UniProtKB/TrEMBL annotation:
One of its GO terms (molecular function) is phosphatidylinositol-3-phosphate binding. PANTHER family: VACUOLAR PROTEIN SORTING-ASSOCIATED PROTEIN 17 (PTHR47433:SF1). This is VPS17. It comes from Candida theae. Residues 104-184 form the PX domain. Residues 15-26, 474-484 have a biased composition (Basic and acidic residues). GO terms for cellular component: cytosol; endosome; retromer, tubulation complex. Pfam families: PX, Vps5. It comes from the Eukaryota. Gene3D superfamilies: Arfaptin homology (AH) domain/BAR domain, Phox-like domain.
Length: 512
């Protein structure tokens, strides 16, 4: 009796066909070919040379196409910060879009988002883009007094810097959530909030961190995580030390203010010598001004350097966790490879049996095919994450270097300005100190052989520079004026060279 082709012959006593064996052999050949191709991949020449293998140039372009195109750009400008609830101000943004799909406009002039909404958007970017070192948005609270001009200037600067960093990343701007973040009305919430992280979290994450790190063929990334962790711990210790120094300076300012009050009381008891009374009064005022300057200096020190170090702490922590996520995915890949090998061994054992059960054969084939697809997917994911993190690593190192230099420069200028103000206050009372009596007062200490002393009361802090230095004082305002003047000159020259009317008028002027 002949069977119709549409029906399957499930007779267990029938003679086994050769088809299952062929399917086993073809699937085994495919997996072996994939393993052979993965072993014979040319290393990346541009990125890191022989140390970073397993990713060829063509694979890199396929895995990270966003890195090799300049068609898309997104620019977000922080226009102003509006007052709202404490620690939750409103950010008024201006957005310019070029080439990105799904945006309905090219310009958005009045996008208003609260700080908490931006924080939620930041967390979403970190969860949905595992291959990117997503920067952390700086906190809405600073070391400066709340609501002051210094706090507003710092928030404007650091938040604009954060927007520049996320919009300069070609992968983040292609995220669909950016469209909702820009185009939604006031009261934005993350649309793709149901998307969860594909890596372990909570207690499982802490447990997996205790296991040894899997082998990393990318040497630069293997060395980068310990470096970032050491920098994270070092910045934490540095911030704690700066906090202690700031608190000590605040306590010192209180004691200095107490000393100024005692000097003022001392001047009231000085009744016999008018020169000494005048000197104690002036010195008490100077010491009081010094206590105020010391308090302002401690606040400015934490605002400039302390907040910057805290920003590094948060940023380094996210980078460390992103590298940890990569290791967790690599461990999942090893487990998937082991599972695929076990499925392959099970299939080979089943193939060598004398009689085959078609149901078990199909089940084994499906499980082997599924395991192979999972392994291939994780392999591509690890390659994409590794390739992108090679680019991200160089960008992070460059940004940290420039940021740290700017912080040290601002901190040094702040300390110099503080000491200049103290010196100026002390120089203002030099004449009062030297004129305590007719013979020079306290300036004649240990100089009794001099009958009279000529007082040199020239100010050391002149606009041209310090009196003891041959270098002129380069103020930031003068540097800014010079830069603006040069920019205006260059723009005027370019305008004159480009403008057709000016060119025609110049050509029409007689030169004789």
């Amino acid at each position: 009796m002949d069977y119709v082709d549409d029906f399957e012959d499930n007779n267990p006593f029938a003679r086994p066909d050769e088809e299952p064996r062929d399917r086993f052999e073809s699937l085994a050949e495919e997996t072996q070919a994939q393993e052979h191709n993965s072993e014979n991949v040319e290393p990346v020449g541009e990125a890191n040379g022989a140390d970073q293998d397993l990713i060829s140039k063509t694979d890199l372009r396929k895995l990270i196409p966003e890195r090799f195109t300049s068609k898309y750009s997104l620019n977000i400008k922080l226009v102003s910060i509006e007052r709202n609830k404490p620690e939750n101000p409103i950010l008024r943004l201006s957005v310019r879009v070029h080439g990105l799909p799904k945006f309905r406009q090219r310009e958005y002039d009045d996008v208003r988002r609260t700080f908490n909404e931006v924080v939620k958007f930041n967390k979403y970017l970190a969860v949905s883009n595992l291959e990117v070192f997503v920067p952390v948005i700086p906190s809405s609270t600073t070391s400066y007094p709340t609501g002051g001009e210094d706090e507003k200037k710092q928030l404007m600067f650091v938040w604009q810097e954060w927007f520049n960093r996320i919009t300069s990343n070609p992968i983040l701007i292609r995220d669909e959530e950016f469209v909702f973040f820009v185009e939604n009305d006031f009261g934005y919430s993350v649309i793709n909030s149901n998307r969860k992280s594909s890596v372990a979290s909570g207690l499982m994450r802490k447990t997996l961190k205790q296991l040894p790190v899997p082998y990393d063929p990318f040497q630069e990334l293997a060395e980068f995580r310990p470096t970032i962790k050491n920098a994270y711990l070092l910045c934490q210790r540095l911030h704690r030390s700066l906090d202690k120094v700031s608190k000590s300076e605040k306590q010192l300012s209180i004691h200095v203010y107490d000393m100024s009050n005692k000097l003022t009381v001392l001047s009231q008891f000085e009744t016999t010598h008018p020169g000494m009374k005048n000197m104690w009064e002036k010195l008490g005022k100077v010491v009081q001004a010094q206590s105020d300057l010391l308090l302002v200096e401690s606040i400015g020190e934490m605002g400039i350097l302390g907040d910057g170090i805290q920003y590094f702490v948060n940023d380094f922590y996210e980078i460390k966790e992103a590298l940890t996520n990569r290791y967790l995915i690599m461990r999942e890949l090893l487990q998937a490879e082991a599972q695929t090998n076990s499925k392959h061994i099970h299939a080979n054992k089943m193939k060598n049996k004398a009689s085959l059960d078609p149901i078990k054969v199909d089940e084994a084939l499906r499980s082997l095919e599924y395991a192979s697809k999972v392994q291939e997917s994780l392999n591509l994911q690890v390659k994409r994450i590794s390739g992108e993190m090679l680019f991200e690593k160089d960008e992070v190192v460059d940004f940290v270097e420039k940021k740290f230099k700017s912080l040290l420069k601002a901190y040094s200028l702040h300390k110099i300005d503080y000491h200049r103000k103290i010196l100026k206050k002390l120089e203002a009372i030099r004449l009062d100190v030297r004129s305590v009596d007719e013979r020079g007062g306290l300036s004649r200490l240990n100089r009794d052989n001099l009958a009279s002393i000529k007082h040199n009361l020239l100010q050391s802090q002149a606009p041209s520079g310090d009196s003891w230095s041959s270098r002129t004082f380069r103020s930031l305002e003068k540097e800014e004026e010079t830069k603006q003047r040069t920019k205006s000159q260059i723009s005027s020259l370019q305008a004159n060279s480009v403008d057709a009317k000016n060119a025609a008028s110049l050509l029409g002027v007689a030169t004789f």
